[in-house]
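Same chain as my last thread, 81 residues:
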Amino acid sequence: EIGFAMNDHLYRLAFVEDREGNPIDLEVYCDETPMPLEDRDIREVDGIYYLPSGTFTALTGLAAAADETACIITLGVPGAE
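reply #2:
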């Protein structure tokens, strides 16, 4: 499990590992309430866990846009002007 806090909410990401040690079956809870996910993918590379950007956006409301040429990721905050 992995957890973080944001905007007075506690998030918990829970998963199991397959026989090769890869994380699978991602479940996410906000303040202990299960959150529906379209994409339950999670990846691990060198001990770091990664979520697809769509899952990250669904959880946090932050939209990520990547400029791969310039190696820049921009996060859009909803309602920010």
